[in-house]
Amino acid sequence: MKFGTFMMPLHPPEKPRTQCMDEDTQFVVDADRLGMTEAWCGHHITLEWEPVTSNEVFLANLIARTEQIKLGVGVSIMPQHHPVNVAARVALLDHLSHGRVYWGFGQGGVPADWELFNLPEPKEQSVMTKEAYDIVMMLWTQDPPYHYEGRYFKINLEKHVDPEIRMGYPLQPYQKPHPPIGMTMISAKSKGGQIGGQHGYMPLSTNLVHHSTVAKHWETYREGATAGGQPEPDRDIWRVSKSIFVGDSNDEAWDFCLNGAFGRSMHYLITLLNRAEMIHLMKHDESVADEDVTVEYVLEKVCIVGDKASVKDRLDELWEVTGGFGTLLFVKHDFDDTDKWNRCLNVLATEIVPSMPSV
Fold this sequence. Notes:
The longest helix has 20 residues, at 122-141. The chain starts with a strand and ends in a 7-residue tail after the last helix. The chain has twelve helices and twelve strands. Helix 7 (211-227) packs parallel to helix 11 (308-322). The protein has helices spanning 17-33, 55-60, 83-96, 111-116, 122-141, 191-199, 211-227, 250-259, 261-275, 295-301, 308-322, 338-352; strands at residues 2-7, 38-41, 70-77, 101-106, 146-149, 154-157, 181-185, 202-205, 239-242, 244-247, 304-307, 327-332. An eight-stranded parallel β-barrel has the order 1-2-3-4-7-8-9-12, surrounded by five helices. The chain has a two-stranded antiparallel ribbon with strand order 5-6. It has a two-stranded parallel sheet with strand order 10-11. The chain is of the alpha/beta class. It has a single domain, classed as TIM Barrel (Alpha-Beta Barrel).
């Protein structure tokens, strides 16, 4: 099994922002040294718990600091950017990194961001996302002239195209035809999973759901692949994200997670999903009452917390329930105790993950 990371990233709001950025930068540098294969980074504008406001800028900061690790834009929130700018920036990132970029796209799910950008309701943002994606693909794979007439995005470039001096030719990516594309999956019947399967994109399962829901992600992805006329997908392309902490003992691990930044981040995510009427995603069974989805519940049912043996057992269980996947993505939490978290990361990278089977 391969080992990578997904960074929301998560930090308590009172922690100095520069310290957060320094910590996350050092984390990816260490991940590269440990042989982790990829580092995905999200971005939001109005969430203090998730302070990276531009994942492209953050990842660009890592190109010269790392050697092998792939850098994943996870994701570009398309309604909040003009697609021409997204295409140009990600193409530049791909060249600067000599092709170490993965790209993901989506519409975002933060109401405060929607309000700040004066965006329409979510169904219309879905239309915006599809239009923006189409434009990015066109700019990355075709030469001018360009014409696109969408409901929200309209582009034309014909009058000022000059082949002699190469005016009118946007930068295209280093990787051809474009960087590998990842699609995130949250619900069991994830629309992102269906779209990803139709196009053969890399599926990325969220860390916010129970093992049983993660297993259904692959079924949804395969259905999308069949509908899109794709060959039978290889499980090696599947990424599964998990919030994991390995402690010296079960008691120590649980005490640390319940009473530190890990537990606080789970309280934040529970609150966020409750307000979005999406708390059902965290339940292992529909009969569980909303008020019973507590930090303790999520640590037990959704996260993987314990000593080395317990964490290995839970990962083996995840493997069995899902049928196997290619890459485990360690979700980066705030390193409120650097020594404990570095020990956790080292044990995972050098002992636990190498002992897991490969698909």
